[in-house]
Amino acid sequence: MLASVALSQSAPFWPQPAAFTSVAGQRELANVGPFFFMHGGRSSPFLSQAFARYTSLAFPHTASAPTSACTAGLSSLPKIDRLTFDVLDLAEGVPALTSDESYTLSINATAQTVQAKSVFGALRALETFAQLVAFDFDCGCYTLPYAQIRIDDAPRFAHRGLMIDTARHYEPLASIRTIIDSLPYAKINVLHWHIVDTQSFPFVSTSSPKLSTAAYALSQRYTHGDVASIVDYARLRGVRVMVEFDMPGHAQSWCTGYPEMCPSSSCLTPLNVASNATFDRIEKLLAEFTGGSTGLGLTPDDFIHLGGDEVNTDCWATTPSVAAWLKARSMSPDDGYAYFVKRTAAIAIAQGRRPVQWSEVYDHFKTKLPKEVIVHVWKAVTNVTEVVANGYDVLRNVGYDATSWYLDNLNVNWEAVYNNEPCEGVPDALCHKVLGGHGEMWGETVDTSDVQQTVWPRLAAIAEKLWSPRAKTVDSSAAAGRIAAFRCLLNERGIAAAPVNNEGARESPHGPGSCYDQRRRLTSP
Question: For the whole model, what pTM was predicted?
């Protein structure tokens, strides 16, 4: 019978698993090479690639034969020379909201196994195991801190994301791949790619090739092949890619290549609601990602984000042609806003996708929206309980007390982020309508030079809130030691995570010291 233990810095899992039991002791790991991770059934290229990645992550140092003084402190149980995976479904499709990420990791006196229903559960088990492995520098060997363990784990929320913004600053493909590499370390499984905005349109559309004339530079664009490569790179790490085209606001860049999409040359936004050409171009653009009737688009995810936030309809009211179009239909500018967001949502639905729209869309139009719409709540004024009670699914990144998961808010520290409970104020019977949430890395002040340290380690706080049981994430002070250890782990894996306890996010260390103990500078040096 394994004894239940409380997680602490001595067992620095991040995020915490649902259930963890152990027997005290220390086990040596042997054969820490390419055949340590093994699949017990038929071959799986997906898992083979994952095993190769995690061999490097779990065993970064060169091991040597331990001395007798070292072996004296180890358990008498046999050395662990492999971790065998039993995966029910080896299908290597794309991850989805419905993907089963559960797993059981068991290490006992006779066997070391992972059982998972899908390859994505196997990926999560690999990360958990890698966080257990320790290198003993005195002995030159790898160990586990327990003689026996059992972990039964599954995420609390199915949708756990990070948004990156490649419109305010261009992010090279290498930078995006590095961000994707980091996401599974905290069991984040969605990359929300806010690919265009007011300032630039870096995607090279085949249906509307002049849109990308609004890129910052001709060399700073993404082709179809680029997007497809990012989607597949993410897939192999169990990460979904949800692309956002924010409209009808935040869309001035669309007008550079196609000025007819805007109300006038002097009043560029929102996009021209009075022109069918606007919606024809949107429909063809979205089809490049969804595949339209074929479903074989660049992003196979079930979700596509259509924005809808911060829409000022003054241009519609003051542009004669648009104002006349509205008047002929007895529509106010706000009615035009409703028409636009519902028509674009209908386009996405017809192409087999669920539209995600920012919370203003719900705040304006309530139950007039199709029930397929997912409401992305970023404003504290949005009544989340009302949204889910009215039958809509929700993504969340703001707390009931207005504490935001917007990572560009550099003054919001990890503890405030951690104390943001996704189902606060939502009845238990409706919490399943909260699909999860995101950290949102708006790009006004980040590019390749500082995106990693602005995202991490605060995204880790979001990740644990979305993965671990609610009862295990109520006390940020109890998590302080573990998140410091996790930040060190990120650094060891080449991720430029900033110190945990600085006054502002992404600040550099304030002097010599270990990554485990970098405290907030309260006075000037």
Answer: 0.95
